């Protein structure tokens, strides 16, 4: 078993640390945020990720938390980097937190391997290698071991992944990083550092492309009377295509897709290549978030003075993460049209959502509203007694941005119900 230090106690760092502890390694998680570390030391988990609290508790004897670099690295054989890499104004990834870690790394007098978990542009490993060499840390190894964990299912994704990708400059460093994952049954892809960095960006780009593709199919379904849910089912059963990431909706959000698409587009542009397909994927996604407005206007006319309830705020269900959530764009657009916006979410409580009343129950959010928009696919929405709440709304208009409800049932419950790409006869707005 090994000693692993993880830098960054965010969504990725905490899951990485917890899973390595579960695999039997001794883990120290280090973060610069003192409040976050104190909370973790006191047994409180600062983010919402299903199962994380239990794993941290269960393997508490093998995982501890610190703000001190020296303490974290003292007996470490691996230093995982899981700090944030947010987008800058130019679309490039902001690597300042990564450089801080590299520059803070003390001389330890024995071989350790720095492992990049954060998503970084291709070429970052090479630059880190030079910086380590320039600091005289020539016996510090470097490997890229990108994460493919989705929030909400991150622990399962880590422990039962489709694959583990390890890129290293030296074979033995790659071997050591691969061995850290003993106990996980998954194919290991061994490659050079640049290719490992690119696997992550390309995998995300492929998933985003599928989402924008099905969203465009949905938009054409609306115009032609087809039902995208049935279409996706029929398309996805083709084994060459597969069913995943074919859920049409209000566009992707989150901490990865929006930022990684910009970073890959920018990476290509910086090398003189215009990544046309990716540019279209990004544009389709931006427009998709706004299509809800036209749907609301079709039912309500002008939105001025109307009250619209946003059901779900987080960028997807089972997380409290608000980064690049479509709800933020929707709230802003609705307010700029003169609507009053209120919201419900079972876990996300964003502090910076201006002039939006956040209510504790679905019933409160819907009472007196002119319309509701399903923004996040929380299971509470599928379980709600929609027939009962219909009477409490001012006008029972529901725009289902996640295609999670049954159109016939909703209409039977008295709603003017519209989803995304489900305008087939009997399903669409023209029949209500
Ligand atoms: C991660 C990855 O690092 C990012 O590259 C990937 O694409 C998405 O997920 P995530 O764990 O979601 O980021 O970020 P966040 O929850 O913001 O956590 C980052 C943590 O790093 C924070 O707790 C922050 O305090 C910490 N940090 C930041 C440091 O410890 N040191 C720094 O210099 C900067
Ligand atoms: C993603 C990747 O899945 C993961 O491998 C990577 O490491 C980080 O980025 P995450 O952003 O947590 O994970 O969630 P994911 O489930 O992939 O969803 C991303 C966005 O796409 C969400 O906004 C989701 O609502 C949307 N989505 C997903 C769709 O609109 N349709 C789909 O069919 C699937």
Describe what you observe in this structure.
The protein is an alpha/beta fold and 432 residues long. Helices cover 42% and strands 14% of the residues. It is built from 17 helices and 14 strands. β9, α13 and β10 form a beta-alpha-beta unit. α9 packs parallel to α12. The radius of gyration is 23 Å and the shape is globular.
Termini, distance in Å? 63 Å
* Ligands, ions, cofactors: uridine-5'-diphosphate-xylopyranose
How many helix segments? Answer: 17
State which percent range the strand residues make up. 5-15%
pLDDT < 50 stretches: 425-432
Q: Tags for this entry?
A:
432 residues; alpha/beta; six-stranded parallel β-sheet; 17 helices
Short description:
This protein is α/β, with parallel strands linked by helices and 432 residues long. Helices cover 42% and strands 14% of the residues.
Please give the structural blueprint.
Elements: E1 3-7, H1 11-22, E2 26-30, H2 34-41, H3 52-58, E3 63-66, H4 69-73, E4 78-81, H5 96-104, E5 112-116, H6 124-134, E6 140-144, H7 154-159, E7 164-168, H8 171-180, E8 188-191, H9 193-224, H10 228-236, H11 257-270, H12 276-300, E9 307-311, H13 326-336, E10 340-344, E11 357-359, H14 362-366, E12 371-374, H15 379-383, H16 386-390, E13 397-400, H17 407-412, E14 416-418
Helix pairs in contact: 1-3, 9-11, 9-12, 12-13
């Amino acid at each position: 078993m090994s000693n692993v230090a993880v830098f960054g106690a965010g969504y990725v760092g905490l899951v990485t640390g917890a899973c390595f502890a579960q695999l039997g390694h001794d883990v120290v998680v280090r973060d610069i945020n003192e409040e976050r570390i104190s909370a973790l030391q006191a047994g409180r988990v600062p983010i919402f990720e299903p199962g994380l609290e239990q794993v941290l508790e269960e393997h508490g004897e093998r995982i501890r938390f610190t703000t001190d670099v020296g303490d974290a690295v003292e007996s470490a054989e691996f230093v995982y980097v899981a700090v944030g890499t947010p987008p800058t104004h130019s679309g490039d990834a902001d690597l300042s937190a990564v450089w801080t870690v590299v520059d803070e790394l003390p001389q330890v007098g024995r071989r350790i391997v720095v492992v990049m978990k954060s998503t970084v542009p291709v070429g970052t490993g090479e630059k880190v290698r030079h910086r380590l060499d320039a600091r005289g840390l020539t016996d510090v190894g470097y490997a890229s071991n990108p994460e493919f964990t989705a929030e909400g299912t991150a622990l399962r994704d880590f422990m039962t992944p489709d694959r583990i990708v390890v890129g290293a400059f030296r074979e033995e460093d790659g071997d050591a990083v691969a061995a850290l994952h003993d106990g996980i049954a998954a194919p290991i892809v061994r490659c050079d550092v640049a290719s490992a960095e690119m696997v992550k960006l390309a995998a995300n780009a492929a998933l985003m492309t599928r989402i924008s593709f099905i969203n465009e199919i949905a938009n054409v379904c609306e115009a032609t009377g087809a039902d995208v849910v049935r279409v996706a089912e029929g398309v996805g059963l083709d084994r060459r295509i597969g069913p995943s990431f074919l859920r049409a909706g209000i566009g992707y959000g989150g901490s990865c897709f929006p930022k990684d698409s910009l970073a890959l587009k920018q990476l290509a542009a910086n090398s003189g290549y215009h990544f046309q397909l990716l540019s279209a994927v990004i544009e389709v996604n931006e427009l998709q978030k706004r299509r809800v407005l036209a749907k609301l206007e079709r039912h309500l006319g002008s939105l001025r003075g109307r009250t619209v309830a946003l059901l779900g705020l987080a960028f997807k269900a089972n997380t409290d993460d608000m980064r690049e959530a479509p709800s933020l764009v929707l709230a802003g657009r609705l307010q700029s049209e003169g609507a009053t916006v209120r919201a419900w979410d079972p876990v996300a409580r964003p502090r910076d959502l201006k002039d939006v009343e956040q209510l504790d129950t679905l019933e409160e959010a819907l009472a007196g509203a002119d319309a509701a928009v399903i923004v996040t696919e929380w299971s509470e929405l599928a379980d709600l007694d929609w027939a009962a709440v219909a009477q409490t709304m001012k006008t029972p208009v529901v725009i289902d941005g996640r295609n999670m409800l049954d159109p016939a049932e909703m209409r039977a419950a008295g709603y003017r119900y519209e989803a995304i790409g489900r305008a087939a006869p009997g399903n669409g707005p023209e029949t209500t």
